[in-house]
């Protein structure tokens, strides 16, 4: 397949590398001026967990374009949530009938989040990868699994194409029946985490403070009424974050989920993105419904 990634971010770059190794042609669309800034290669230092835990270290040549050409089999969009509306607006003018996979967090309802793109031409998914890019060096990794919505009526052809692509690269798909609800819960969890990142100053600092994940659980308890107000069903992970006693939750995250040497821990250690957007969005909705969020509001400094 000929695949276009919208942007050369940490998620796009890692999956593009995996697809190229599987025999596909991968290219990146970048904004005007970025092609010269980024250059013709990127230094990779990333963990590939498809078959065990393999460290990839190479200077990888990349094909960047500042315009979108025709004849792609699939366009994959993995951008920050705040960038998605502009990306969708732009793609609606240049993508034509090329199928689009939206591969990132979303807090709006799915249809409005990608307007004016047609829902019949879009599938939604979510990666299991992380890390960061600094000075043209990517440090991070990706797991074997990723999440993809089960086909809606009219999107079967897109889902089949996406399924074929990921499976050709030896990646395993976990199918999500209600992607809207899944993404709402995931976004809320991000807000609970980012509130602590704002308080502590960085993602790595989150891992080095003994009370971080206990506080994430407290933040999630505060956010739960916002999920209820927008009609979301609290999923199992969100429920555990709200029900497990904070000291036990802290031990679970520090000793098991983000244990030293684990890939999820490395993904956070390398994350150099700016935190706060998810917190702002949740607080904004909470105000609309009159729901107090003292912990999140304090994290924003308001």
Short description:
By secondary structure, the chain is an alpha/beta fold.
Detailed description of the structure:
The protein is an alpha/beta fold. Helix content is 45%, strand content 21%. An eight-stranded mixed sheet has the order 5-2-1-6-7-8-11-12, covered by helices on one side. Strands 4-3-10-9 form a four-stranded mixed sheet, with helices on both faces. α6 crosses α8, α6 packs across α12 and α8 packs across α9. The protein is globular and about 50 Å long.
Tally of separate helices: 13
Percent of residues in β-strands: 15-25%
Taken from the alpha-carbon principal axes, the silhouette is globular
Characterize the main sheet.
Answer: 8 strands, mixed
DSSP strand tally = 12
Rg is 19 Å
Helix-strand string: EHEHEEEEHEHEEEEHEHHHHHHHH
Strand order of the largest sheet: 5-2-1-6-7-8-11-12
Which stretches are low in confidence, meaning pLDDT under 50 for 5 or more residues running? none
State mean pLDDT (0 to 100 scale): 94
Structural class: alpha/beta
Fraction of residues in helices? 40-55%
Distance between the termini: 49 Å
């Amino acid at each position: 397949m000929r695949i276009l990634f919208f942007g050369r971010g940490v998620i796009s770059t890692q999956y593009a590398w995996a697809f190229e190794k599987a025999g596909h042609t991968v290219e990146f669309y970048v904004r005007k001026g970025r092609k010269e800034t980024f250059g013709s290669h990127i230094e990779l230092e990333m963990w590939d967990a498809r078959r065990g835990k393999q460290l990839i270290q190479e200077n990888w040549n990349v094909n960047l374009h500042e315009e979108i050409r025709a004849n792609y089999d699939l366009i994959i969009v993995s951008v920050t949530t705040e960038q998605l509306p502009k990306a969708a607006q732009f793609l609606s003018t240049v993508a034509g009938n090329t199928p689009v996979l939206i591969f990132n967090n979303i807090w709006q309802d799915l249809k409005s989040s990608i307007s004016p793109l047609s829902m019949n031409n879009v599938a939604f998914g979510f990666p299991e990868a992380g890390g960061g890019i600094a000075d043209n060096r990517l440090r991070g990794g990706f797991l074997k699994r990723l999440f993809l919505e089960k086909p809606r009526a009219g999107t079967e052809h897109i889902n089949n194409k996406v399924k074929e692509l990921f499976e050709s690269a030896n990646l395993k798909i976990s199918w999500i029946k209600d992607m809207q609800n899944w993404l709402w819960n995931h976004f809320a969890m991000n807000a609970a985490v980012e509130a602590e990142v704002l308080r502590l100053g960085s993602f790595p600092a989150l891992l080095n403070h003994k009370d971080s994940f206990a506080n994430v659980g407290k933040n999630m308890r505060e956010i739960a009424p916002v999920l209820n107000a927008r009609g979301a069903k609290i999923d199992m992970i969100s429920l555990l974050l709200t029900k497990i006693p904070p000291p036990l939750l802290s031990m679970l995250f520090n000793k098991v989920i983000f244990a030293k040497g684990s890939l999820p821990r490395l993904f956070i250690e390398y994350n150099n993105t700016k935190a706060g957007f998810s917190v702002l969005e949740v607080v904004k909705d909470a105000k609309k419904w009159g729901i107090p969020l003292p912990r999140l509001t304090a994290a924003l400094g308001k």
